[in-house]
Amino acid sequence: MSRLSKTMKKELAQIQPSSILAFNQEISSIPDIVKLTLGEPDFNTPDHVKQAAIKAIENNDSHYTDSRGTEGLRKAAAHFLNSKYDLNYDPDTQLLVTTGATEGIFSALTAILNPGDSVIIPTPIFPQYIPVTILNGGTPIFVDTSDNGFVLSPEKLQATIEANKDTVKAIVLNFPNNPTGVTYKKEDLEKLAAVIKQYDIFVISDEIYSELTYDGTHVSMGSILPEQTVLLNGASKSHAMTGWRIGLLCGPVDVVTEIAKVHQFAITSATTNAQVAAEEAFKNGPDDGQKMRAVYQERRDLLIDGLQQAGFECASPNGAFYLFAKIPAGLIQNSVDFCYDLARKAKVAVIAGSSFGPGGEGYVRISYAASTDSLKEAIKRIQQYVTDNQ
């Protein structure tokens, strides 16, 4: 007799552990390898943020908080989102503090999906949304955007909704995008919103990289279509706090009220001293990300130049800290095989584009969250690898 849930057996059979994490762990044993795999900033959390957490621990601020998050953090986060992106969320009723944006994704999709519902997922994209949809009895509907500069067009969105309008419950947007670094301008979002508002569906808008927007100012879908948007953000990328696990989920009152129930029974509440640290980050360090952003932009330009010299095609990303590069003709075209070969022969680790859904095959994702010295060494090794293998 199966020891696993009969209800979940079918869903669990459809998903596998993260191929990204598995590859990263496997190649870590290669001596002297340069890892450009994960979205892990090489910056440290700002000192004033760390000091706030230390003080909280010393003051024995170590008890459960309101499951929605401390009042101070919710107010600081709401003010941050308002001042940065013109978002107007009531910190008492429209904002949750989640354990990273990933828990926000899980809680949101768990609350809104019924078995048989479908979720439109433009690809290539961060794959987290796919297994969560499946675990909740939903069906991912992939929309390949590689033929449109990795941007979802309103025409393709409309056609996809119409073809699945009996089941579509939500569409996922992730911008600036992981893995491509492409983002949406205000006019792009307005055109998508004009389509979405014709239907009774949600937008799960993952904007965790909002502070790492290079060209122009980030515009949030929450400011354009607030009544249908569930917004995800957090402190991980803006303040180099990935391990602190502080995310934000915002949306309409009635929707957030229900998502809060899933959130509460999943985690009770986020870690107390991490919430104190995040409050300090949003309140007294709203622009901490700007210095990091300037360095990332320099690294982006360095990497693009070096890869183009090696024959890679790559559009200049205007956000996040990833480059999505097309594997040059003459080299291994299967992205998984290419990544293993590059790791073994050149001792450079990057992620296969196929990990990010349709449209990703033939590409690799390269994280430039690593140090500048690491990037320079990686470029030298990749250039030599291309010379040796073409």
Automatic annotation (TrEMBL):
Keywords: Aminotransferase, Pyridoxal phosphate, Transferase. Residues 32-382 form the Aminotransferase class I/classII large domain. GO terms for molecular function: pyridoxal phosphate binding; transaminase activity. Its EC number is 2.6.1.-. SUPFAM superfamilies: PLP-dependent transferases. InterPro entries: Aminotransferase_I/II_large (IPR004839), AspAT/PAT-like (IPR050596), NHTrfase_class1_PyrdxlP-BS (IPR004838), PyrdxlP-dep_Trfase (IPR015424), PyrdxlP-dep_Trfase_major (IPR015421), PyrdxlP-dep_Trfase_small (IPR015422). It holds the Pfam family Aminotran_1_2. Its cofactor is pyridoxal 5'-phosphate. GO terms for biological process: amino acid metabolic process. The keyword Transferase applies. Belongs to the class-I pyridoxal-phosphate-dependent aminotransferase family. PANTHER family: AMINOTRANSFERASE, ASPARTATE AMINOTRANSFERASE. This is Aminotransferase. It comes from Secundilactobacillus collinoides.
